[in-house]
Amino acid sequence: MSKKATFLPMNLSLAPFLLVLLYHLLSCVAVHGVQEKKILSLHNNIWSPRKSYEAPSSCFSHNLGKGRESSTTLKMKHRELCSGKTIDWGKKLRRALTLDNLRVQSLQLRIKAMSSTTTESISEAQIPLTSGMTLQTLNYIVTVDLGGRNMTLIVDTGSDLTWVQCQPCKSCYNQEGPLYDPSVSSSYKTVFCNSSTCQDLVAATGNSGLCGGDNGVDKTTCDYVVSYGDGSYTRGNLGSESIQLGDTKVESFVFGCGRSNKGLFGGASGLMGLGRSSVSLVSQTLKNFNGVFSYCLPSLEDGASGSLSFGEDSSVYKNTTSVSYTPLVQNPQLSSFYVLNLTGASIGGVDLESSSFGGGILIDSGTVITRLPPSIYKAVKTEFLKQFSGFPSAPSYSILDTCFNLTSYEDVSIPTIKMIFQGNAELEVDVTGVFYFVKPDASLVCLALASLSYENDVGILGNYQQKNQRVIYDTKQEKLGIAGENCSF
Ligand SMILES: *[C@@H]1O[C@H](CO)[C@@H](O)[C@H](O)[C@H]1NC(C)=O
Ligand SMILES: *[C@@H]1O[C@H](CO)[C@@H](O)[C@H](O)[C@H]1NC(C)=O
Ligand SMILES: *[C@@H]1O[C@H](CO)[C@@H](O)[C@H](O)[C@H]1NC(C)=O
Ligand SMILES: *[C@@H]1O[C@H](CO)[C@@H](O)[C@H](O)[C@H]1NC(C)=O
Ligand SMILES: *[C@@H]1O[C@H](CO)[C@@H](O)[C@H](O)[C@H]1NC(C)=O
């Protein structure tokens, strides 16, 4: 299969294991009669007790990316693989579900607040103020050069302001590598609180910029606060600095110099905001990249790297199927999100029926499990159980209610899941995106999709189902492209 050729192992200690996994994943893809199925190997995951896997001591700041004139590509890693510690996978995988649920609850509250017709301002205590939300579940990181120093940032399409932890710091969490220090950078400039950038902050963060005076910085600075649904926050002042994304240098990039930051950011220096408001990295680099970026999210079980690309040069994509496009839905009430129109779905080649198709669904790099309106979820579950029959069932876990005990199986043949978007754009969920391993020994493996509480809640396309796809955000032409890709860098 030609698929093999595009998949380049990046870490020698992983190579033998990857080859075995590859063999299993790729050589076994098959179509049986009418029902389309794929083979999943249950005990070749990084977290399987039957495998020995050693986490790399670090994957920070090794590769700053590559590019050409109008485009650039950054290496993207799964954050879990960078801790350098022995990982208790069972605990990690289960905790991730709890956190994911918090993020989604916060997103739904925020959406309800934005869609409510009252013009009354929303109390800070009740409503999470921005979309970044529970950052613990934001799993993908890239390294960029900010003012001459390498910074590792969590990638988030659901929020706007890019920030890093900054010296002097009042309260910072532990990060790998030194904090950014504006006092030793000749290209750092303060953003004043009388500037329009400062005034625009309210759209990006839910909080208006304030004239500073905290932490020994003078009163003309623009202070920002980004608070998240779970109690995490970053607080500091806006600055501008040159940022280098791969080969492309962008001068006077506005970012948050975080003097007080709290949350489980996993050793990262900060966060890269790829949302839609004027302060987001996408908007600030419009001249360089024309509002286009794309990513390939690697699957954790492969231990592979993915990539984050800026610009329109499609020759950097390693797509294995052709790119299909769907319009980005214009919804003024969800203006800071990327929204798609989910028009259908199929399980093992069987099309599903639901009156809830044709509604908007957010695409988010920070939510893990895809959430579907109850009627669509029910149709998916019913057809999946019909085709994936004869396997011992297991109790529900957290938000996941279609579970199996598969310990005694080596490989299972699972129905393919496809989601169809307006314009017939198609996402075929990767074989690693169908089941979530609640227990690493496969004794509790669940369909990695969940139901929303209410039919009119807004669906979310999570990162688990976006793995091994090239997802292209074109904010200029208001469209999103999807193609299959085996992520590599
Ligand atoms: C940043 O990373 C690049 C690529 O690995 C390396 O060449 C460079 O020395 C690093 N810069 C600093 C300041 O550490
Ligand atoms: C904003 O404040 C700075 C610092 O006090 C000042 O130098 C600048 O002239 C002001 N700009 C405007 C547009 O008022
Ligand atoms: C990748 O996508 C482009 C654009 O749709 C297409 O022309 C090309 O054939 C695709 N590559 C593969 C291997 O399908
Ligand atoms: C989604 O697409 C369908 C079919 O093209 C259309 O009827 C419907 O109005 C669209 N929904 C939204 C939210 O744009
Ligand atoms: C799962 O199945 C295996 C054998 O099929 C059995 O030994 C084990 O007890 C089951 N585990 C759970 C948690 O039910």
Automatic annotation (TrEMBL):
Residues annotated as domain Peptidase A1: 140-483
Catalytic residue positions: 156, 364
GO molecular function: aspartic-type endopeptidase activity
Pfam family, one: TAXi_C
Nuclease recorded as keyword: no
Segment forming the signal sequence: 1-30
Keywords, alphabetical: Hydrolase, Protease, Signal
Ligase recorded as keyword: no
GO biological process: proteolysis
PANTHER family recorded: ASPARTYL PROTEASES, PEPTIDASE A1 DOMAIN-CONTAINING PROTEIN
Family: Belongs to the peptidase A1 family.
Protein name as catalogued: Aspartyl protease family protein At5g10770 isoform X1
Gene: LOC108817451
